[in-house]
């Protein structure tokens, strides 16, 4: 559709608790699928932790 996904979702207003919960379940299922495909349980969790740690370190450097 050529539209930023966040901008597209924002046009519908605030995300309800039910919708946020549904998003969480979908993300968990996708993480399980990815882990199963590469046959490494917890791989998605480790990847996300490294990503967030890297982002936090970058933020500390930019905003001491």
How far apart are the first and last residues' alpha carbons, in Å?
40 Å
Number of helices: 3
Radius of gyration: 16 Å
Model regions low in confidence, pLDDT < 50 over at least 5 residues: none
Helix content: over 70%
Overall form = flat
> Could you say which structural class the secondary elements and strand pairing correspond to?
mainly alpha
List the secondary-structure elements in sequence, H or E. HHH
How many beta-strand runs? 0
Mean pLDDT: 92
Q: What share of residues are in beta strands?
A: under 5%
Main sheet: strands, sense, barrel: none
Quick description:
With 64 residues, the chain is an all-alpha fold. The protein has helices spanning 5-10, 17-37, 43-62.
């Amino acid at each position: 559709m050529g539209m930023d996904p966040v901008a597209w979702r924002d046009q519908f207003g605030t995300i309800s608790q039910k919708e946020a919960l549904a998003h969480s379940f979908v993300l968990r299922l996708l993480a399980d699928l990815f882990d199963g495909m590469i046959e490494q349980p917890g791989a998605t969790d480790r990847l996300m932790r490294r990503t967030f740690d890297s982002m936090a370190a970058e933020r500390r450097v930019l905003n001491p």
